[in-house]
From TrEMBL:
One of its GO terms (molecular function) is metal ion binding. InterPro entries: Glutaredoxin (IPR002109), GRX_PICOT-like (IPR033658), Monothiol_GRX (IPR014434), Monothiol_GRX-rel (IPR004480), Thioredoxin-like_sf (IPR036249). PROSITE patterns: GLUTAREDOXIN_2. It comes from the Bacteria. This is Glutaredoxin. Residues 18-82 form the Glutaredoxin domain. The keyword ATP-binding does not apply. PANTHER family: GLUTAREDOXIN FAMILY MEMBER (PTHR10293), GLUTAREDOXIN-RELATED PROTEIN 5, MITOCHONDRIAL (PTHR10293:SF16).
């Protein structure tokens, strides 16, 4: 990954309390896993931002290297990598996601 791509990802994560790197946008997810993440965050009613990795191939590949996580979507909360769709679903079911989001937004 280029230093410019790393700097761009660093900046995006720092600027957004809850950030999802996904295929598509929160208004139009382009894969089922991304849609799952959007649905969960919408149910929580929390503000979040999304980055469409399909619109930027450098970000699409770079985020995988950045997090050492091979799949999309990827969720960052308060600057920390949380995981992908499966992890977010489990956290939501366990009640941990609601707590993590509340702490991040406090």
């Amino acid at each position: 990954m280029s230093p410019e791509t790393k700097a761009k990802i660093d900046s995006l994560i720092e600027q957004n309390k809850i950030l999802v790197f996904m295929k598509g946008t929160k208004l139009m997810p382009q894969c089922g896993f991304s849609n799952n993440v959007v649905q969960i965050l919408n149910m929580l009613g929390t503000p979040y931002e999304t980055i469409d990795v399909l619109a930027d191939s450098e970000i699409r590949q770079g985020i995988k290297e950045y997090s050492s996580w091979p799949t999309i979507p990827q969720i960052y909360i308060n600057g920390e990598f949380v995981g992908g769709s499966d992890i977010l679903i489990k956290m939501y079911q366990d009640g941990n996601l609601q707590e993590t989001v509340a702490v991040a937004l406090a």
